[in-house]
UniProtKB/TrEMBL annotation, chain A:
Its main location: membrane. It is a multi-pass membrane protein. The chain crosses the membrane at residues 7-26, 68-86, 107-135, 184-203, 223-243. Keywords: Cell membrane, Membrane, Transmembrane, Transmembrane helix, Transport. The keyword GTP-binding does not apply. GO terms for cellular component: plasma membrane. It is found in: Cell membrane. CDD domains: TM_PBP2 (cd06261). Gene3D superfamilies: MetI-like (1.10.3720.10). This is ABC transporter permease. One of its GO terms (biological process) is transmembrane transport. It comes from the Bacteria. It comes from Bradyrhizobium australiense. Belongs to the binding-protein-dependent transport system permease family.
UniProtKB/TrEMBL annotation, chain B:
It comes from Bradyrhizobium australiense. Involved in beta-(1-->2)glucan export. Transmembrane domains (TMD) form a pore in the inner membrane and the ATP-binding domain (NBD) is responsible for energy generation. This is ABC transporter ATP-binding protein. The keyword Lipid biosynthesis does not apply. Keywords: ATP-binding, Nucleotide-binding, Transport. CDD domains: ABC_NrtD_SsuB_transporters. InterPro entries: AAA+_ATPase (IPR003593), ABC_transporter-like_ATP-bd (IPR003439), ABC_transporter-like_CS (IPR017871), ABC_transporter_ATP-bind (IPR050166), P-loop_NTPase (IPR027417). GO terms for molecular function: ATP binding; ATP hydrolysis activity. It holds the Pfam family ABC_tran.
Amino acid sequence: MNRAALLWRMASFAIAAGFVALWQLIANLNLVSPVFLPGPDRAWTALVRGFSSGDLWSKLAGTLEHMAYGWLAASIAGIAIGAIIGSSRMMRTYVAPSLEFLRPLPVSAIIPVAIAMLGLTQAMALFVIAFGAIWPIMLATIHGFAAVEPRLYEVARSLQMSRLAVIFKIALPSASPDILAGMRLSLTVALILSVVCEILAGLDGLGHWVLLSARAFRSADLFAGVILLGVTGYVTSVAMSLAEHRLLAWQAAQR
Amino acid sequence: MASAAKRLDVVPGTPAPQVSFEAVTLQLGGKTIIENLSLGVRPGEFLCIIGASGCGKTTALRLAAGLYQPTSGKVNFDGQRMREPRREIAIVFQDYGKALLPWRTAAGNVSLALEAGGMPSAERLARIEELLRTVGLPGHAGKYPSEMSGGMQQRLQIARCLAQEPKTLLMDEPFGALDAMTRQGLQDEVLSLVAASGATVIFVTHDLEEAIYLGDRVIGLLPHPGRIGIELAVNLPRPRDQLSTREHPEFLRLRRQLFDFIKATEQ
């Protein structure tokens, strides 16, 4: 890292620290009742207490599990369906308009439908999370498959490559930057929907923890849960960026 | 190349063409691109096709590659009708930037052809190294195409085509996008590679001198629709030399003839 980048990094940490300090000041001055707003000190204590008692670990594991299963299901289905639609012009022409209708549909609107059909179950959560997270992945895959350089298909033909080899050696790698970008967007969607499902269906997880803490006026626990959710979103997105960076090293060479 | 010797001894005395066009007509989108084209290319021959832009020379090459099927007539390879592309026919595209896989290194790009040919992975590494050395890219195995110059990328594409062990090598203006010095170097390399492998070559170019310098025979196409307008045998000694061949009276005579032909087609 060069000097300028280091300075920027330090500045961003300083600003974050400033926000925490401001939060502490507001809490100390009792501008908001401590019943609703704990200071960072109390939130931190609650966080440590939650982890040492083991409660938060299991809640965190629950949320991560919902998120991971939903996201993985969305990824597999999204890439598979996207590949089928994206590699055929006819499919794109016929199916794309229906997708455009479904895509902007707020996923929260289908939660009651899912509950009605599947009940307040893990299956319902999996369905809702996967349904919400599939769109960015599927649309990115369609775009990626549609944009494969036609010349490469000719190379594949003159090499007499099999259909399967063409998909795995030409189309998928060519579409991978789009697909990975879609998967990164979906990660956030999956986290949001995990929390929503936990709150609505009372499934074990941080969403449920946050809801119960709020109802019991345990504001420090509430904030501990919110902080933990923020950290989860941040860490998963950083991990995804690292994976993207590694998998797409060839793109860095291109620039 | 080990298999090269095997192929060479098939050549003498075999008049049967390796690639032949029999009254080939191709229509695309209601337009006749090529009309009634008949043509035979002997095994081991270096045939160059020239012509003004839009005369269908690239299309003719794509027909030979099996990437297009003729509307009427036949394209044969080794006496068999071509219905789809085959691995024994390799094609070097002009736009090397699009024909290489940007996510694979130089070694990986060559490997693609070996994988398609079903070579076991244990044998690939040595073969890749050998091919990269053959085209003058030793030590670049780990580079991505985007890290290479245009000339290097075109060498890489040629290496991938050689990995197919082609009987026929089709080249579509392969050096059109390269600067003059790089082009001359690659012309000589292609000549020595082809001499070593004994492959038949059909080479499309708009550079008249390049066609004479490389070819055993030069065919000039007339446009709208594409058909043969001139056919010249090139009786210049081999190996060719960038200076003395280009100063040879026969070279100058052929160049004049082709130049007049092109000028006439443009009027």
